[in-house]
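Protein in question kept underneath.
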Amino acid sequence: MKRLLLALVLFTACAVQAQPLDLEALLGESWYGLYMNGQKAGFARNSAERTDAGTIRIVEDAQFRISMAGMHQEMKIYTQRDYTLEGDLIVIESHVDDFSGKTSFSAIVNGDKMELTSQVGGKTETVTLPKPAESLRDAVKHAQWVQQKPVIGDAMTFSAFEPMYRKEIQGTSTLLSVEERIFEGVLTKVYKIETNLDLIGVHSIAYVAEDGTTLEDVVSGLITMRLEPEAMAKDVNYNNDVIISNAALVEEPIEDARIRKALGLIVEGPLSEDHLFNDDRQSFTKEGETYLFSSQLQAVDEKDAATLPITNPEVTQHIQATAFVQSSDPKIIEKAREIAGDETNAKTVSDKLCDWVHKNMRSTFSARLTNTLEVLDSMAGDCTEHSMLFIGLARAAGLPAREVAGLIYVESEPTGFYFHQWAKVWVGQWIDVDPTFNQTIADVTHIKLAEGDLFEQAKLIPVIGKLKIKVAPKAP
C-alpha cells in the first residue's frame, strides 16, 4: 500500500504545450493538505524560485502521516527540478525518506544525454539515458495554460521524467468546464481540467484558478491535494488507517479460506483490462456491470520441476538485478546459497526460500520504499518486505521471480480482502508464492491485479478503495 502512496504523489505532476513563459508569474509557494478517501493523510509544499545560478527551481515536497493497522508511519517525498531561463531541464534531485533511511536519485542533463545516479539500499548505480523531452513548461502544470484562456474541449499534451522508474511519462489534459467561485474573497474563474496517463490508467481532476493557482487536484478519486494555509495543511493527526480504509470488506466470512481448492467471487468496481489477469490459477469473466472471479489451487509436482541453473531464454530476464532488487549483491548471493545449499530442484529451492523468509522476518507494518538489501539488513516489515526479500533471494539463487500485487482475504476485524503483495517464481512453470503466510503455493483467496515493478503496480491506483467483493452463490 505504501508503494502506491508514493506512486500517487509522483503522478500528480502535469504539463503544458509550448507557449511563451511568464517567469515572474511562476514564482512563489503554495501549501496543500493531502487527503486519502476524505481523511487527512499528509501535506505538501510546492514552490518555484530563482536560484543564485540564475535558473528556475521547481520543488514538490510532500509528507504523509498515516496509520497502518494502528501503527503511526511517516514518509517524506521530495523532488527538485532545475531549468534554464529558456526552459531546458538541467537537473533532477529526488529522494524518499522513511524510518529505514533515504533513497535518492540525481539526474544531470549534458547535451543529448542524461546521467542518472540512484542510491538504493546503500548501493550507488549510474546509468546514461537519452535526454528527456521534459521542459519547464511541463513542470508548471496548468498554470500557463489557464492564463491563455483555453475554451471547453481544448486539450494539451505533457511529458515528465520520473527518475525512480527511469521512464518519461506522457499523457493528455482536457478542459472540461469553466466555473466561477469565490477565491480569496474575489469572484474568479476556475478551470476544471481532466488529466489522463493512459499508460497506467491514472486520471485526475484539477481545479485551477485563472491566475494559475491549483485549488484542488483529485487523483483517481483517491488522493486529494487541496490548497490550504500552511498551518492548516500541516495539521495531520494520523487519523487515516490506510490498511482498513482501502480494503474490500465482506459481510460473511469465507469458509476454510486457507485450505480451499477453489473459490468463486463477484467483484464490482472500476477494473480495466490492465487488472484482469487470466492464467492457470485465476480468471475473470465480465457479467453485466460486475466480474466473476474464480481461482483454483495450482498443482505442481516437484518431480517435474526445472533443474538449476535455468537457461530458458523466455524467463531468464527475470533473474536480472534491478535498482530495488539487488540480487547480484554479494550479501544477497551468499544468503541465497546458505539457504538453498546444494539443492538444484527449482521447486525445492523456492520452498526453502519461502520458509526461511517467513520464519526469520519480524512482521510489522512499515511505511518505507522497500528494496531487498535494506530488508535483509532489517529483517522486518510487512507483505512488501517479505516478497521483496524472497524475490531477491530467488533471483540470486537462479530462480526467475517477479512481484505480484492485488488482494488477499483476511479473517480479522474487520473481515475482508486487503491490498497485498506476494511473488511469482518460475520452477518449470510460473507459480504464485506468498512468504508472508509461508505459502509455497499461494491460496485461492489471492486476487492478482498487477504484476511487475512499482511502475506496473501503479496501475492499481484507480481501484484502491473502490472494489466491492462477495462470495459467488453456489451453482444449483
In short: The first strand starts at residue 28 and ends at 36. The two ends are 38 Å apart (CA to CA).
